[in-house]
C-alpha cells in the first residue's frame, strides 16, 4: 500500500455503545458508509454476500459501504459501533480499492479508543438501532455538518482514532482483484479515480493498448460488465452518496459526475435504481426528534442503538 495518508479522508458519522437483547435483526441493509464493530459481550451474526459470520467478543468487524447485509440476533449482544464516511467526491476512494477481511482481532486498548471516540463525539450517537431512522438524508447531512464544525483538536483526535481502528483491517487487506489482466485492472482503477469526468470507452481502450472492440470483449470477459455498464454502476453509487450526504441540487450532483445533461442523468439513475434521483433523496429524508437528541447526548447510556 503506497497511498499518501493525506488521500484517506474518513469521517465519523456515528459512534456509540449498543446493548441488545435479541432485537438486532435488520434485513437487507445497504448504506453509503462503512461500518466497524467491536463486540463486547454475547453473540450475533452478520449475513454478507460472502457468507454468514459469527460475531464474538474481543473481535472487530468491518462492513464496506454499498454492501447489502443483514443482522441476526436472538440473545444478549453488546458492541461498540462506528459508521465511517469516506469523502471521495473529488478523488479516488482508497477504501474501495481494497478487499478488507470481515474480522480482525481487537487489541487490549481498542475498547478505550471506541470509548474515547464516543466521548468526544456525543452528538453522533445513534438515537435508535433501526437503519430506517438514522440512515437518511437529513441525519447524514447534519452529522457531516457537525463534523466540519467541531473544534480542530477534536477533528484531529477523531481522525487519528479512525486511522488506528482501520489499520487493524488494512494490515491484512489485499488489492481488489477484479481481473487477472493487468491492462483491465489498470483501467478499472482509472475509472474509479475519474468518476467526475466524462469517461470515453475509446480512450480506455487506448490506455489498455487495444482496439475498441477487442477492449470491450476483454473487459466484459474479465468483469462480467461492459465498460459502459461498469462506469455507470460506479457513477450511480457515487450519485447515491452525494444525494444523501449533501444538499447539492440534482443538477450539481449530475455535473460532479460528468453528466452535463441533467435529464439524461435522471434517466440513467432511474434505470439503475428504479426511481428518480429526487425520489431517492426523498426516500432517505427523515430526522430525529428533540428527545432523540437528548438521548444522543449520553454516549454510554444503555439504549439499543447500532
Structure report:
By secondary structure, this protein is α+β, with helices and mostly antiparallel strands. Helix content is 42%, strand content 19%. It has twelve helices and ten strands. Strands 1-7-2-5-9 form a five-stranded antiparallel beta sheet. It has a three-stranded antiparallel beta sheet with strand order 4-3-6, with no helix packed on it. Helix 8 crosses helix 11. The two termini are 31 Å apart.
Note poorly predicted spans: 286-305
Shape: globular
Main β-sheet, in a few words? 5 strands, antiparallel
Q: Helical element count?
A: 12
Topology:
Blueprint: E1 10-21, E2 34-42, E3 44-48, E4 51-55, E5 59-63, E6 70-72, E7 76-86, E8 98-99, E9 103-105, H1 110-120, H2 131-134, H3 137-149, H4 152-170, E10 174-175, H5 182-192, H6 201-207, H7 212-223, H8 227-245, H9 250-256, H10 262-273, H11 277-283, H12 290-296
Antiparallel strand pairs: 1-7, 2-5, 2-7, 3-4, 3-6, 5-9, 8-10
Helix pairs in contact: 1-4, 6-7, 8-10, 8-11
